[in-house]
Amino acid sequence: MSAPDPMRRLALLCALWPALAAAEPPITAEAFEAHVTGKTLTYRQFDHVFGIEEYLPGRKVRWSTAPNECQYGSWYPQDTHICFVYEYDPTPACWTFWLKDGALVALSVHAQPGEELHEVSADDRPLPCPGPVLGV
């Protein structure tokens, strides 16, 4: 008997991903809020920093994917998802969040298996977001 074909294994893993993810129930909006409010979290995807988000009171956020570039927005619960809306894009970006070993794991509702984000650090330092340019 020969070893299973790698593409076949990958297809099986992709087919099983929803069931594997569902094994851990998503966290509630209340648990998410308690975990993030007042913190600045760094997320990675694969082996790279995906972005940094500062979670402010009142479900407000500041998101950055590059130094000194910030987007302001807010988040809200929708079913089992946490959705984000930012000032320059009113289209909601919805994610399912789980806690794994005390850190968040997130999967976009539009992501492919394996494209989840992982919380890699959390602290209470604000994001270095520049203020608006005045008098120009």
Widest sheet, order of strands: 1-2-3-4-5-6-7-8
Main pleated-sheet profile = 8 strands, antiparallel, barrel
Query: Over the alpha carbons, how many angstroms does the gyration radius reach?
Result: 17 Å
How much strand? over 45%
Relative helix content: 10-25%
* Through-space gap between termini: 73 Å
Basic shape: globular
Average pLDDT reading: 83
- Number of helices, where a helix is a run of at least 4 consecutive DSSP H or I residues: 2
What structural category arises from helix and sheet content?
A: alpha+beta
Poorly predicted residue ranges = 6-22
The total beta strand count reads 8
Q: What's the structural domain tally?
A: 1
The succession of helices and strands, N to C, reads: HHEEEEEEEE
Explain this structure.
By secondary structure, the protein is of the alpha+beta class. The chain has one domain (25-123). 18% of the residues lie in helices and 46% in strands. It contains 2 helices and 8 strands. It has helices at 6-22, 29-36; strands at residues 40-45, 48-56, 60-66, 69-78, 81-86, 89-100, 103-108, 117-123. It has an 8-stranded antiparallel beta barrel. Strand 6 (89-100) and strand 7 (103-108) form a beta hairpin. The longest helix has 17 residues, at 6-22. The N and C termini lie far apart (73 Å). 17% of the residues are buried. Residues 6-22 have low confidence and may be disordered.
Using brief descriptors, characterize the structure shown.
136 residues; alpha+beta
Fold blueprint:
Layout: H1 6-22, H2 29-36, E1 40-45, E2 48-56, E3 60-66, E4 69-78, E5 81-86, E6 89-100, E7 103-108, E8 117-123
Antiparallel strand pairs: 1-2, 1-8, 2-3, 3-4, 4-5, 5-6, 6-7, 7-8
